[in-house]
């Protein structure tokens, strides 16, 4: 597949080595007779979500949802305000929250997302996503998906790949919007989980969400989650932070043609520039490992002609 073989499937990617490598990889693994050809059932690609498929600044979208839920719950149960995580959330003290790490954020999610039927949570999250706006840009969070990644997902779909989301975020939260936003069905989302239990409500069978973190799907847990859910090693992996490195290393260490790609957020004019010092989506070791393992390191400033599907409001 080359740029002159038909309409450009990646128009938001600037011409250069990254785009050529993407197109060459897809062409090779999808062309019968090519030494790198891969059967359709083995064409599996895995994508991180926050910072890879949509914006994660100034905070994870699910954290913004949890902060709104905290205020609602404290209005009903004032004693919750004494919990350190809740107190930090009420004070909008993101630094204190991040001091508890991803485990602390998921504990906050457990407190704010539990105590309800699974279907009720999905309805609540879906309604919030319809109404919520990015605090700085005033646009829906689903308007902050990355257009180049949407094009890549569409290209892979057209070439009989099965794409999965593998996220540190809550699996049920991401499943609410993944199909409509990315074209990835809910059964292809792997993420952090709360404990669930089966019961009845008003005589109807129900799955309930408990306020207990069951699994944190980040770092070394990502390849484990992929192995459990998919049963095949992916041939392509896409991420943006050090939390994605195990997933990229496991994917690209397999036999045959492989592709690993890390996004480097270095465009402070059209998005946000961040890497080693960021509380969200920290990319430090990955900057070195990308060279060592031959992964593509995408510069948003240099490699993306366009970042979001529609122009954002000007300051």
UniProtKB/TrEMBL annotation:
- State if Calcium is listed as a keyword: no
Write down the SUPFAM superfamilies for this protein, in alphabetical order. HAD-like (SSF56784)
InterPro entries reported in the protein's UniProt record: HAD-like_SerB, HAD-like_sf, HAD_sf
Q: Which UniProt keywords apply?
A: Hydrolase, Magnesium, Metal-binding
Q: What class of enzyme is it?
A: hydrolase
Q: What is its EC number?
A: 3.1.3.-
Q: Does the keyword DNA damage apply?
A: no
GO molecular-function term, one example from the UniProt record: hydrolase activity
One matching Pfam family, short form? HAD
Family, according to the entry, reads as follows: Belongs to the HAD-like hydrolase superfamily. SerB family.
Q: What is this protein called?
A: HAD family hydrolase
Native species of this protein?
A: Cyanobium gracile UHCC 0139
């Amino acid at each position: 597949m080359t740029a002159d073989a038909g309409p450009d499937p990646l128009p938001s990617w600037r011409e250069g080595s990254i785009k050529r490598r993407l197109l060459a990889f897809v062409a090779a693994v999808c062309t019968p007779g090519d030494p790198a050809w891969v059967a359709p059932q083995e064409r599996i690609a895995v994508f991180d979500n926050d910072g890879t498929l949509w914006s994660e600044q100034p905070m994870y979208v699910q954290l913004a949802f949890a902060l709104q839920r905290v205020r609602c719950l404290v209005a009903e149960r004032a004693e919750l305000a004494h919990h350190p995580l809740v107190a930090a959330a009420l004070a909008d003290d993101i630094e204190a929250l991040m001091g508890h790490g991803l485990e602390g954020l998921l504990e906050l999610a457990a407190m704010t997302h539990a105590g309800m039927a699974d279907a009720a949570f999905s309805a609540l999250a879906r309604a919030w996503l319809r109404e919520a706006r990015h605090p700085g840009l005033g646009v829906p969070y689903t308007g902050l998906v990355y257009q180049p990644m949407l094009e890549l997902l569409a290209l892979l779909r057209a070439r009989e790949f099965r794409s999965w989301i593998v996220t540190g975020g809550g699996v049920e939260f991401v499943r609410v919007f993944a199909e409509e936003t990315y074209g990835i069905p809910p059964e292809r989302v792997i993420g952090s989980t709360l404990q669930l239990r089966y019961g009845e409500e008003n005589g109807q069978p129900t799955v309930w969400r408990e306020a207990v973190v069951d699994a944190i799907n980040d770092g070394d847990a990502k390849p484990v989650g992929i192995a459990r859910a998919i049963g095949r090693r992916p041939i392509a992996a896409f991420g943006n932070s050090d939390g994605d490195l195990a997933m990229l290393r496991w994917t690209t260490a397999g036999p045959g043609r492989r592709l690993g790609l890390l996004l480097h957020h270095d465009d402070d004019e059209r998005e946000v520039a961040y890497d080693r010092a960021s509380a969200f989506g920290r990319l430090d070791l990955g900057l070195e490992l990308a060279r060592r393992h031959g992964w593509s390191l995408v510069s948003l400033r240099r490699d993306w002609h366009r970042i979001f599907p529609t122009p954002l409001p000007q300051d």
